[in-house]
Amino acid sequence: MRNKYFRFWGLLFLSILSLSSYAQKNDSNQLVFKEQPAIVGKKIVNYVLGKRFGWRYQKVCTYYGSLIFSDAIHDTQIQSEISKGYQVFLSGKRKNHIGHVDYNVFGIWPFELYRQTGDEKYFDLAKHLADDEYQTPRTDGLASYTRFWVDDMYMVGSLQAQAYKSTKDTVYLNRAAYQLVAYCDKLQRPNGLFYHRDDAPFYWGRGNGWAAAAMAEVLPLLPENNKYYTPLMKAYRKMMGTLLSFQGKDGMWHQLLDDPESFAETSCTGMFLYAMATGLQNGWLPWEQYAGPVQKSWDTLAGYVNEKGAVREVCVGTNAKNNKKHYLKRPRSTGNFHGQASVLWAATAMVRLQESY
């Protein structure tokens, strides 16, 4: 009887000790932000909803960002407001463009609406845009609109990933993964960063942001036994490690990543945060190495969002050129949808990361 008594209390002590250890670990993994991602994200969404802007890829990416943000914070009102903008396409009053990576990425918006609402009316156009990219694929199996600009990694990769999430057809997932691996082989340098284009040998911030965000969209969907998983994960981890070394002391990344004298740029910083936080959430990156830089980056980036919800210091649209001054002298703007989208993605990733610990 006495042995049973000691055994009972011994097991109870070990259980309490185990729970205490877990709590300490959990506390040490908490991210305490100066600006709450949910509050910052709502400010950005409100700004976006009140802004008139043509239906270009950056607006689509912003509306998609608003939807994934609304899903992360469980706010169906945002979803409802974003869906209103799509009604002109359902009614036929407006027609989306098709035939280029920047046009076809439009499909990520209705795909996300379809998944969140279950309403079939959003599905057909989105699927048509995803299928169009491979209607006449290249002889190497890549999308017909392949041009090896680093931006395309997101434009094609994300659309095909959204198609897979909506259809569960692995054809789309393999398309996305193969496209990204091919671009890594072509544009990723030994240090892990990407050239804007093969003949534009510069580590442009947002160009690398598109690559990072694309991998963050596709990798969570890939099973480890998929033939593209290992090379894509290797490319992702190599890039993330190098990005840490180029992060500014304030937590920001710059217009040209390897030039600390170039301006701190918000759209690339948001995209890198999205990719890193996704890696932390999925266990691809070590917490002790990346959590601090992620927290510092968010705290600083949130300060670039003004009271109206407009993101400052956003590089405007940028073509690829073999000219360093071209990148250094690009104008910066406030409220540009490149920045609105990427900071919404970052806010979404921060919310998800907070909830996962």
Task: Note down, in words, how this protein is organized.
- The protein is mostly helical and 357 residues long.
- It has one domain: Glycosyltransferase (Alpha/alpha barrel).
- It has helices at residues 2-28, 37-49, 57-73, 76-84, 87-91, 101-104, 108-117, 123-132, 152-167, 170-187, 205-218, 229-246, 266-282, 287-302, 324-328, 337-355; strands spanning 314-315, 332-333.
- α3 (57-73) packs antiparallel against α4.
- The protein is globular, with a radius of gyration of 21 Å.
Summary keywords:
single chain; mainly alpha; globular; 16 helices; 2 strands; Glycosyltransferase; two-stranded antiparallel ribbon; 1% strand; disordered N terminus
Present the secondary structure layout:
Elements: H1 2-28, H2 37-49, H3 57-73, H4 76-84, H5 87-91, H6 101-104, H7 108-117, H8 123-132, H9 152-167, H10 170-187, H11 205-218, H12 229-246, H13 266-282, H14 287-302, E1 314-315, H15 324-328, E2 332-333, H16 337-355
Antiparallel strand pairs: 1-2
What proportion of the residues is helical, as a percent range? 55-70%
Alpha-beta classification: mainly alpha
For the CA atoms, what is the radius of gyration?
Answer: 21 Å
> In CATH terms, what is the architecture?
Alpha/alpha barrel
Largest sheet: 2 strands, antiparallel
Shape: globular
Number of domains: 1
Number of DSSP E strands: 2
Low-pLDDT runs of 5+ residues are 1-26
- Give the SSE string: HHHHHHHHHHHHHHEHEH
* CATH topology (level 3) name: Glycosyltransferase
As a percent range, the share of strand residues is under 5%
CATH class reads Mainly Alpha
Q: How would you state the average pLDDT, rounded?
A: 92
> Reading side by side through the largest sheet, how are the strands ordered?
1-2
Helical segment tally? Answer: 16
Distance between the terminal alpha carbons, to the nearest Å? 41 Å
